[in-house]
Amino acid sequence: MTEKTSNLDSRCVVLVPKDRADTARQLAQKHQLRASIEHEPSLAMAELCLLHQKYKMDGAWGDSPKAPQLLLVHAKEFSQLEQMLVAVRKYLPHAIVSELRDGRLESVENLGAVVDSLKEPPITRSEDVDADELSMLLDQTPHEPDE
Amino acid sequence: MNKERTTRGSIVFAGTFDDELISGIDQPIHCVHTVFDAIGELATCVTSDLVEAVVIDENLITTNPIAAIDAVRRVDPNAVVVVMGGEENTDHADANVPKDTTASRLTAAILNAKSKPSNQDVIGDVDLDAVLGISDETMIVRDSSPLGDVDLVRALMHDPTSFKEVLVELLKQETGWSFCAVVDDSSCAPKTAQVAPLRYGHTEHGILAAIGSSQSELTRWARWAACWLEMSRKQRQLKLLAYQDELSGAWNRRFLRTCFTRELQIARDQRRPLTVMLFDIDDFKQYNDKWGHDAGDEIIREVVRLLRTIIRKGDHVCRIGGDEFAVLFCDPEPPREAGSNHPTTIEILAKRFREQVANASFPSLGDEATGILSISGGLATFPWDGMDVDSILRTADERLFQSKRQGKNSISIGREL
């Protein structure tokens, strides 16, 4: 259930559905990443933890501190993704989580809301602004309420 | 002898569990909601609160139970994984318990799973020459000049694993046989080959098989080869006598120093940590005085046996004094690569060993003796606690005495001295 591309420098864990593994491999090659490609969220979490432990150990030897990286590729297909990201935020707060969106890697800032962030923001229409509201917005001084 | 009972590691409960079950557990617990949290707990636990077991609600791992359990094991291969659920449990876990289990049954299931032996330091399987640094192929310079007896001596001294190969090459060179081999049994030899037993006195060393030889010539060379093979066997036997403790079967103090020196050099070259644990049996003299020396000997043997059930392949158990022991933790694969099994932390091993000793029974001491034995120990790690063998052993020794001063039955790990 694990495959690796190991000829490159930067380490990371990639979570990708099995049928999209080619995308993950291309991504790793394009971005020069040494990736552990996982197809199960639990195994990706374990690998991320191990990467964290390795960096901690390297730090004890005086190496510059590094943060473990998790890349999500089509990961919204995993029903347990949100649970996993909550755990990442709790136990590995320094982990860098990125997601492949439209061919680009983008940082996932709000880990807990990652699933929502993948959707288009809802378009809402407000009611027309009346004269009082407009005046208040422009002048920043509300009118006195009517007697 | 009233001693405080051992403090066991914590248990992580992942999922929803009965309050009565949780409250009945007599050790530290951490309740989390998901398997991911359980993995996080394992990865970030501190040495003072090591996780002994992870109990997973079966409902959390319905999608892929094998992957979930594997994930837990990747982070800590020594944590016992228990799946709690109904009828359809997974065999992949260390233990399965029903949803309506009791605290005592759950604890028993964890203890039972822990008692299964792991990789052992079986001396018969150890390449003694490699461990002690005797093997050194670079000392043997192979060129096109004919082989001689001196090449056999060199192979014996510097590369014993190649000894048979050199012996066969030398035989071929001296005789001109088209085929020559040392085989275990004549049935392993080619049908057209002549065979002769390799026997020295009453000791059998297999069969010499050759094509292109007369039977009398083969028998003469077989006697010559058997002498060399016997010498090779004797040399290994002498090495074992020199480095092994006769009573317990563990390695001895000489082995510790030789092996430690070599492993330290490797650790330095490969920039990896190397840990030694020194420990002794608390109040060992009292057991000898009360139950006799045979009982004392049994305790020594049992302690070594218990220790071998928890150490990893590559670690070495040494008896360095009457009731003093050392364990050299030679982790074979650090720093780990992502994707491989994480090396078991030495603190976990040390803690589990102390627990095993405290819960062991010793038939020679009578029924009342169960659970009265305890050990005190100290751990020291290169490079943090010392840069050479003496300073690391000294630190471990100081920590051992720190454990004694603090009331025995403990293993000191930290940096405070």
Share in β-strands of chain A:
15-25%
What's the number of extended β-strand segments of chain B?
Answer: 13
The pLDDT mean of chain B sits at: 81
Pair of chains with the largest interface and how many residues each contributes: A-B, 34 and 29 residues
Tell me the series of helices and strands of chain B, N- to C-terminal.
EHEHEHEEHHHHEEEHHEHHEEHEHE
Overall average residue pLDDT of chain A? 74
- The backbone outline of chain A, from C-alpha atoms, is globular
What would you call the shape of chain B? Answer: elongated
* Helical segment count of chain A: 5
Biggest sheet of chain B, strands in spatial order?
2-1-3-4-5
| Oligomeric assembly | heterodimer
Helix percent band of chain B = 40-55%
How many whole angstroms does the radius of gyration of chain B measure?
27 Å
**Total DSSP E strands of chain A:** 6
| Strand content range of chain B | 15-25%
Q: Low-confidence segments of chain A, ≥5 residues, pLDDT <50? A: 1-9, 111-125
Specify the biggest β-sheet of chain B.
5 strands, parallel
Low-confidence stretches of chain B: 1-7, 117-122, 335-343
Topology of helices and strands:
The complex is a heterodimer of chains A (147) and B (417).
Chain A: E1 2-5, E2 10-15, H1 21-30, E3 33-38, H2 41-60, E4 69-72, H3 81-91, E5 96-101, E6 104-107, H4 114-117, H5 131-139
Parallel strand pairs in A: 2-3, 2-4, 4-5
Antiparallel strand pairs in A: 1-3, 5-6
Chain B: E1 10-14, H1 19-24, E2 29-32, H2 35-44, E3 51-57, H3 65-75, E4 80-85, E5 95-98, H4 103-114, H5 128-132, H6 149-158, H7 163-175, E6 179-183, E7 194-200, E8 203-211, H8 215-243, H9 253-270, E9 274-281, H10 284-291, H11 293-310, E10 316-319, E11 324-329, H12 346-359, E12 375-382, H13 389-405, E13 411-412
Parallel strand pairs in B: 1-2, 1-3, 3-4, 4-5, 12-13
Antiparallel strand pairs in B: 6-8, 7-8, 9-11, 9-12, 10-11
